[in-house]
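Researcher: Please translate sequence to structure tokens.
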Amino acid sequence: MNWYEDFLKKFFHDPADKPFSIRDHENRAKEYAEFFDVSEIEDGKYADIIASCMERSLLPKDIKCDFNEVIHPLSGEKLKNFRLDNQNCIAQISSLLKEFSDSFKSSSDKEKAFLIWRNLLEEIIEKIHDKELKKYFPILPADTRIPDHSLWEHLKITTAINASGQYQNNSLFLFTIGPVQSFISQARKTHDFYMGSFMLSYLTFMAIQEVIEKYGPTSIIYPDLYNQPLMDWYLKNNRLEPKNSDRENLTLPTIPNRFVAIIGTTNEDDIKTIASEIEKKITDEIRKAKDTILEQLRITLNNKQTEILQGQLFDFPQIYWVAVPWRKGNNDLQIDDLNDFFTDEKLNNWKEIHKFAKERGEFPPNIGFLYQLSYTALEKSMGARKNLREFEQKPEAGRKCSLCGERNVFFYRDEENPLFVTNNLEFFYQKAGRGKNGYFVALDKGKVTHKLLGKKEGLCALCFIKRAFDIYLEKRVDKIFENFSFPSVAEVACSDFKKKAKDLAEFKEYEGKFSQYLHLQYLKIRSLPKLCMKDTLEGSWFYKENLAKRKIEGELGISIQESQIEELKNILKKVYDNAGEPNPYYAVLYLDGDNMGRWLSGELLPEIQYAYNSNVWKILPDSFKDSLQKYASQKILTPAIHSAISTALRNYAIEFVRKIVEEDYLGKLIYAGGDDVLAFVNLTDLFDVMEKLRWAFSGHIKFENGKLMININNATGFVLKEGIYYLTMGKNATCSAGFVIAHYKEPLKIVVDKVFEMNRKAKKEGKDRFAICLMKHSGEERVGVAKWQINDFLTTQILKELKDCMNRESEPQKYISDGFIQKFKTEFYKLKQNSLPQGLINTELKRLITRAYNGDSKGKKDFVNLFFDKAQKLFWGIGGDIENFKNLLEISSFMNRGA
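Model: Translation complete:
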């Protein structure tokens, strides 16, 4: 049977309105299946038994419960007090299912399966007229007694399981590619940085595509493919229209570099075949990218030259995969079959849980009960697999690539001309080599522009493919990548300046004159999304220091007269007079979830009681609860929990992160997938972006009139957006982040390496923290580290208020001069401040702040008290660390001026 025929039978085994009437839900399931011409849904019964065992095997017999709450799967927090009429809800859902099914009368089973999976939920939500039902519909529980996982997650897992009768044939499969941070950070331009992220995301999806074509989209447990941009692109390629798909999202990499799947085989040869086909798919994709790029750039190489180029691509990417079959021989996997991965104590405890479930549970445990053990074995197997280092770059003699510094240069531009270098050593190290035609191939400089290859820049084959990957994406994926440009760091830095200046006549005059004199189309770029400027002059040309004949002619290869430069300077000065000069500093951030490995392994799940409906927990026999808590103090990991984590992370990336970084503020995302976010941000918005990214991760946000706001009091883990509840990671999930403030002329590779370093520093200091580094153009650095929250106060709010109070250009003009910071450090640095009375330190801090006040006497006391209150909260909140305090204050003050 094809996966899609199997999918339809399993998908309709439970009706979408199941929680509203459990008693007759099976009859409704058959009725709804008939709407879609699906019969024999009983064939999916054993898959449902396995999935149900995974999710709710520790229930005693004969426990009933009406639908009255939803429990967050990762925190145990509850949504209650529903105002829902059960029969009315059933009537609405039944009617909408019938309406939706009418559009499938002439569809194949494959089309039905894909579109039901992708569009059914959104179709119903869009047309539900009951606002209360609309809110809860995406999170309706699969079982009212253990309402910690949604019906949709249960259906996903059931449709992923290959089972017939009493026989199941499944394996857990884990795939990953790399390297990640090193490949991404090897960048001289933001375009390189972005394309490195996109390549890894795209290639991972190519691997995923091989799995979904054999086993369907629900077989991918992590990441959740629903509403993923590349998955929607795949559907469109197959002439299927995903509902509410935003084409703009396609440019955002949201697929992490790994996936976990349930694949419908345990045969070793079949698994190896799948893995082999995945590897072939990826290598073929890289080859196609190379061929397309060379063809589009009119680069013709002979066989020998092509072989040399291909040699640098052979070990990219590094691919790892492992599988844990759920059968051993003719039997389902048993606990003792996993003794290579666990201690005897751990296995014995699981045997006791298994025995308890068998003796006291509603249904006997099956292979689904061992999901947590098999997943842990899978991760341990991957760790062992990665320790086998079989990918080793062969050392090459010659000039190294300007990006990676690892491989030899093949693509090079001299003073003017782009070349393909065939003899690296002779070309770069023998004087006679440059002039010999056999040592290089001249390339078309009309095609290989300065955007692709800068003056005196040399790239290896892989880094050249990375930089030019948008050429391939335009042909292979979507025209949205045509003439693709990613904002430079200078563009990010000056975006607040452009926001103020873009409507000025002088601004438009400057852009027009620049274009007139230089005739370079690629200098016109698409700015940050919030600015809505599709054809604007690239940001570096709004900095007066760049208006120099030597720089323009050397960098752009275009002659310009001094008189023309003077004219440009005069016009730019007029822009400055009206909008101020652009800040040369910008910020880059890297945020990722804390302890994600422990979340995925089940170590951080809440206590077992938080899986149960409150009323159910109350009526469970004491002996049952005592035994349950003895052997299973925590909730047991299930694929539904993995699905919930995946859904929460998808919601974070697609529903919240892009809105925060690109719609609400002056920023540009590099990557947002899994639990990671990489982005560039204008300095004016840094603190706002920092805090909203952090608190959106754990769901401590709300929407008011479409605006995303912090709401620390929302601890439920569910966020109401546009009348619909979205799942987040919940109150117990935290994240750490690194931030770097740098001058736009600082080499990007250094800045990127520093932001990853700051992230590691935040985690090393205890997680749930951020570390921020100011890299001054002079070479000085300031590093500050803090928790996201100090007592009941948001640290970012404290820093924002301190920053505003130190702003010399504030209105009305009153401020605290930041000179007091160094004085405070000087007075106390040599003393052991922990041994001094807190009152003494506070008194001196307030005295210095009072002396640093600038402004009229009116309101001085309140202003000083406000600043002192925030400063002392920060100081003691970071443990009285004077150096850290000084750095955080200096960084905050610096953000006012950026010079």
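Researcher: Any highlights?
Model: The longest strand covers residues 585-593.
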